[in-house]
């Protein structure tokens, strides 16, 4: 039935596209015809994928919704591969087919400069530095970290990623002027207010979802209109809830997996800024927003597939398809950045930044070696030593009381000696 339904939909869509093509006279504009043909091909592929692709771990609001984003992942990856195999100039100019305003070098905004919270030199508005930083990226930071918390479902990992990205901005501000921010912009506005408040609200939402009673009832079985409307709204909430317990210190495998997740998250965040820089896209462009919306939808599925694979590898014998696609997309975006502007990426880090990163890597490796190798060997040695001592004590006890009469005889001999002395 599902395959028949798929063929019917594809047949209707193909007939509709052919009918529209035959009704109108084909324009002589090659660029317009190329764009229209590409869009039609993508629509046919999405229609096929939505009905035939493999279901993921999520079923709300509908499995077809998540199959759609899986197919969009494939289309986006193919687009990135195409951009990767173009020259730098052709790749930037190709974006003009999407938006004629693209393909023009844009100056990067510097968020540093005057970092005084209160500027006495400006009598009209001494707090102008704060108001200048309050742009559209402030609510974007908040909602972004709210959604990331819903994906990761762990306060510890969210805070680690948030703080680590600020350290990356400090380290790479010599490459991208956009990373140059005031200290209070880094730690007060970003980490504490925007990111911290988003993580807090996300954790509160997770607590509500974990405590919520999931008892689903058919829409037409609900007698009241209020109940029907409530049921429609709850259709956009999870069908059931799984609490993520990453437990990174429980085993070396989980520790390496969690470190890999954090690394991919940070790389995807950096790709956002570097892609804008190398492809000449302004930060407020709708393509940048669409990319973030895309990662919000596919990232949640990928995180669930990764957790299922880590938590129960016997049942989930291989990593999910969406997780592999997200990893491939992140790697391809990084390759585009490397190819389009290798000079920026090869700018050497300042010496003190290099020292800090070397020290941090040494501390992480030292803790890893102590936690999963030295500590385990020490605990195992202590346990073996304790078991040997217990075994020796039990053996000595058995030898001393082997026939059941040696202790009695010793007591009798002792009493006889006392009697003789008396």
Automatic annotation (TrEMBL):
Positions of transmembrane segments: 6-24, 36-53, 65-85, 155-172, 184-203, 255-274, 286-303, 323-340, 352-373
Keyword field contains Ligase: no
Gene Ontology CC terms, in alphabetical order: endoplasmic reticulum membrane
Subcellular location as annotated: Endoplasmic reticulum membrane
Bilayer topology annotation: Multi-pass membrane protein
Catalytic activity: 1-(1Z-octadecenyl)-2-(5Z,8Z,11Z,14Z- eicosatetraenoyl)-sn-glycero-3-phosphoethanolamine + L-serine = 1-(1Z-octadecenyl)-2-(5Z,8Z,11Z,14Z-eicosatetraenoyl)-sn-glycero-3-phospho-L-serine + ethanolamine; a 1,2-diacyl-sn-glycero-3-phosphoethanolamine + L-serine = a 1,2-diacyl-sn-glycero-3-phospho-L-serine + ethanolamine; 1-octadecanoyl-2-(9Z-octadecenoyl)-sn-glycero-3-phosphoethanolamine + L-serine = 1-octadecanoyl-2-(9Z-octadecenoyl)-sn-glycero-3-phospho-L-serine + ethanolamine; 1-hexadecanoyl-2-(4Z,7Z,10Z,13Z,16Z,19Z-docosahexaenoyl)-sn-glycero-3-phosphoethanolamine + L-serine = 1-hexadecanoyl-2-(4Z,7Z,10Z,13Z,16Z,19Z-docosahexaenoyl)-sn-glycero-3-phosphoserine + ethanolamine
Keyword Transmembrane: yes
UniProt cross-references to Pfam families, sorted A to Z: PSS
GO molecular function, one term: L-serine-phosphatidylethanolamine phosphatidyltransferase activity
Keywords: Endoplasmic reticulum, Lipid biosynthesis, Lipid metabolism, Membrane, Phospholipid biosynthesis, Phospholipid metabolism, Transferase, Transmembrane, Transmembrane helix
Enzyme Commission number, as recorded: 2.7.8.29
Pathway(s) served: Phospholipid metabolism; phosphatidylserine biosynthesis; Lipid metabolism
InterPro entries named among the record's database cross-references: PSS
Superkingdom assignment: Eukaryota
Family of this protein: Belongs to the phosphatidyl serine synthase family.
Protein name: Phosphatidylserine synthase
């Amino acid at each position: 039935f599902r395959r028949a339904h798929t063929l019917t939909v594809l047949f209707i869509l193909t007939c509709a596209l052919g009918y529209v093509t035959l009704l109108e006279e084909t324009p002589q504009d090659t660029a317009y015809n190329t764009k229209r043909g590409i869009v039609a091909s993508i629509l046919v592929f999405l229609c096929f994928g939505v009905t035939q692709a493999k279901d993921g771990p999520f079923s709300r609001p509908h499995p077809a919704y998540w199959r759609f984003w899986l197919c969009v992942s494939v289309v986006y990856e193919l687009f990135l591969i195409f951009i990767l195999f173009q020259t730098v100039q052709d790749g930037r100019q190709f974006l003009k087919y999407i938006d004629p305003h693209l393909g023009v070098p844009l100056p990067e905004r510097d968020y540093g400069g005057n970092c005084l919270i209160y500027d006495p030199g400006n009598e009209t508005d001494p707090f102008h530095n704060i108001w200048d930083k309050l742009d559209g990226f402030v609510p974007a930071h908040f909602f972004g970290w709210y959604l990331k918390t819903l994906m990761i479902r762990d306060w510890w990992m969210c805070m680690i990623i948030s703080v680590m990205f600020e350290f990356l901005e400090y380290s790479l501000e010599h490459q991208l002027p956009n990373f140059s921010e005031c200290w209070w912009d880094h730690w007060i506005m970003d980490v504490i207010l925007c990111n911290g408040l988003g993580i807090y609200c996300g954790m509160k939402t997770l607590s509500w979802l974990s405590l919520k009673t999931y008892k689903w009832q058919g829409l037409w079985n609900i007698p009241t209109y209020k109940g029907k409307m409530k049921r429609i709204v709850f259709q956009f909430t999870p069908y059931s809830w799984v609490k993520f317990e990453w437990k990174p210190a429980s085993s070396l495998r989980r520790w390496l997996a969690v470190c890999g997740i954090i690394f991919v998250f940070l790389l995807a965040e950096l790709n956002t800024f570097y892609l804008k820089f190398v492809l000449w896209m302004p930060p407020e462009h709708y393509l940048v927003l669409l990319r973030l919306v895309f990662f919000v939808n596919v990232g949640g599925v990928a995180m669930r597939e990764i957790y299922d694979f880590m938590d129960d590898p016997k049942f989930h014998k291989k990593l999910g398809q969406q997780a592999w696609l997200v990893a491939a997309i992140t790697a391809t975006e990084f390759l585009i950045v490397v190819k389009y502007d290798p000079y920026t990426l090869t700018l050497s880090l300042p010496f003190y930044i290099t020292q800090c990163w070397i020290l941090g890597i040494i501390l992480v490796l030292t803790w890893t070696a102590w936690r999963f190798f030295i500590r385990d060997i020490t605990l195992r040695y202590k346990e073996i030593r304790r078991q040997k001592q217990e075994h020796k004590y039990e053996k000595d006890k058995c030898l001393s009381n082997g026939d059941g009469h040696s202790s009695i005889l010793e007591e009798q001999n002792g009493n006889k000696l006392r009697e003789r002395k008396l």
